[in-house]
Each structure stands twice: as structure tokens, then as C-alpha cells.
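Summarise this fold before class:
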Amino acid sequence: IGMTQRDAIRDRRRKKQQQQRMVVIMIVAGIALIAVAIIMVPTIMRNFQTVGEFTKPEVNPRTMANGNTMGDPNAPVVIEEFSDFGCNHCANFAFGTAELIEEEYITNGQVFFVSRSTGNLLNNPNTQLAAEAAYCAADQEMYWEYSDLIYANQGLLFFGGVSYIDNYLNAFADTLDLDMNTFEDCLSKGKHEERVLNDGNDARLAGINSTPSFLINGTLVRGNLPFPEFQVHIDGALEISSSQ
């Protein structure tokens, strides 16, 4: 009888230990599920982010476009633009003064123009993602047309309460008839993330802290200046180049 009582006690202890282990396992599993949910929520929200109407500017191919550059690489003057896709002044430059510079100096081989981002200089993850998307479009030789789409939809992307802009960026690519598998793979895998961060580092090294800013043959020029003021800088650089 004594052995039977001890066996019963052992059996109760064993069952209690098993119950305790099950409770621990369930708690750990619950924590793991919560962690996975926290990780997956942003992805789920991105997938459910609907794409509404957006502005589609007229497609405007640039002179001798090659990736994020335009013009003759051997031109005597190189203008390196550092911009942010969420910057209104950058959009105004793109749709205004930049077109005049192209018409006056790029088409005749005097200026080679390079467009770069400022990375995370202004601490906006969405504008950094937009810059990565523009470089993904550059892989398919549609950098400038894609950039125009972003600038034309600044209010929607960066000031319209859209938390995740991925689906819009994909829709822009689709509008331009890009290879969507290639583009989506490029953007989702962060192919150009390091490139955009390097843009920001180079901007800091050049003393740039506002957008748009420009290096005209290495000389820093800040702001979306009126075209006549740009002419002064460009003509000065051309004069120096011709005297060397």
C-alpha cells in the first residue's frame, strides 16, 4: 500500500511537471508569435496600402541620358546636384531651371549633369526609399522620367499621410513600362540602399546641409537659384576651363 501511495505521489508530481512544461512552452510560443506579428505588420500594411490616383507628368527624356546623368561626360563643366525627393525647391528646380540648363548648356556639350540624392541627410526614410527606387529605374535607363513622377507627387508621397510608399513606387515603375520583376526585386532587396547612403556621406563631406545644392566643377552652390545666377556660375566655370 505504501508503494502504491508513493507511486501516486510520483504520478501527480510528474503530471504537474508536465503541465508546468506545457505552460512554459505555450508562453514561449506566444512570445514568438507576437514577435513574428510585430515583424510582419509593416509588410502586411504595405501590401494592403491601396494606390489611388496620382499625377503623371509628360514623359521627358533627357539629352544623352545615362542612368542618373545626362550630357557629354567629357564636357568642360560638371554639375553634380544633391537633392531630396521630398524637397519642394528640388522639384521646382527639376521642372524649371534644370530644363533651362539642359537647353542652354547640356545639349551643346558644355555641361555634364549628375543627379544624386542626399541619402538620409534629412532623416526621412520615405525619401531615402524613393531615391533607391529612382536608382532602380536608372538600371533600366528611366531615372529622369521616374524622378519626374516622384517630384510631381511629392504632396501625396511625403505629406499626404501615406506611411508606406512602396506600392506607389511600384505603380510609378509600371506606368513607365519598366520590367516589374526586375524593379520590384531591386527595390525590395535594397539593391541601392548603400549607394543612397553614400550619397548622403558625400553630401556631408562637401559641406552640404540643405537641398538642392550643387557642385559646379567642385565649387559649392546652394539653393534653387534663378537661371541667370546659374548662368554666372556656369559661364565662370567655362571661362576657367577654357583658360587651362
Notes: The chain has ten helices and five strands. The CA atoms of residues 66 and 90 lie 20 Å apart.
